[in-house]
Amino acid sequence: MKSQRLHKYILFLGIGILTSCLDNVSPNEETGPEYFTPVLSSTLGQNDFPQLERNPMSKEGVLLGKTLFYDPALSQNGKVSCASCHDPSMSFTDGLGLSNQGVSGKPLHRHAPPLFNLAWHKGLFWDGGSVNLESLVFGPLTHPDEMGADLNEVLHYLRGSSTYPALFKAAFKSDSITSALVGRSLAQFTRNLISQDSKYDQWKRNEIELDDPEIQGYQVYQKNCSSCHSEGLFTDLSYHNNGLDASYPNPAELEGIYLGRYRISFEEKDRGAYKTPSLRNIALTAPYMHDGRFNTLDEVLDHYDHGVQVNESLAPQLTDGIQLSEKERSDLLAFLNTLTDYEFIHNKAYQQ
């Protein structure tokens, strides 16, 4: 147990130092940027944190990205920030099925996904339409129903600010503020959002014990869910058609929005397929699915029990659905609740 306590101490020390440092970072145009690599728990199942040569993580870059993330002045009407749809208390989701909180007031076509452990994702958005965080951020920033920003106006605002020029200088050693640097800083902040200290993680590190229903639920998960929600990140980072609909319409004006991954890959197996969401923090991220159609986890389990729509691209794992007894369902829900990471949602380094 002494070595277990030491492991946890080292993990928390690393996280604590990072939190403290980011809380107290101030622009230093002479010495910055100070590069770092986040401390990882073995329970993530990842050996390394993927650093990008063209956009390495720095404390100043993360601070700048965090400042931009919470700034509503970037939006067309000055009222909508990234955080408007990505609230840290809900694991950076918004609790809405299809948000209408953007500048246009129109409902979106996809549910706002949670933001954590994105450093290991090869494809982003529900259909994998973006290959990296640096490019992803411009989607919601400029979309007319989300933040609706004009990048030229954003840059004019940032350059005329009393605080942003020093922040950009400290983060990138640059006297110019460009859209590329906006993307890089927002990417650094979101890439730094790491969830790895849930009750499950503490159990896997032999720091605590789970109770019997949670243990039984873990076994139900392993048997029925782990083929797509792989342990560690609790997603296989792939795309599957999970039988939400029998067919997939394609209105010309919506550019294939209902076709799932197919609109990117043009492969028939991807028709109606969407990215496997992580089960981490699943109790915080309702409603569920790419369009937020299910309000509760019970509704999700009902779907897999008797609601799967058979179609040509259905994931083979779901041909017969997933039938659970009442006890298995109860135990599974108990285990899923162990994946809630309270350290993550209360981490001051991630909050405004």
From TrEMBL:
**Which Gene3D superfamilies does the annotation name?**
Cytochrome c-like domain (1.10.760.10)
Transmembrane ranges, per UniProt, are: none
Q: Give its localization.
A: Periplasm
Keywords, A to Z, come to: Heme, Iron, Metal-binding, Oxidoreductase, Periplasm, Signal
Decide whether keyword Methyltransferase is in the record: no
Q: Which InterPro entries match?
A: Cyt_c-like_dom, Cyt_c-like_dom_sf, Cytochrome_c_Peroxidase/MauG, Di-haem_cyt_c_peroxidsae, MauG/Cytc_peroxidase
UniProt keyword Nucleotide-binding, yes or no: no
Sequence ranges assigned to domain Cytochrome c in this UniProt record = 212-340
Cited Pfam families: CCP_MauG (PF03150), Cytochrom_C (PF00034)
Under which name does UniProt file this protein?
C-type cytochrome
**From which source organism is this entry?**
Echinicola arenosa
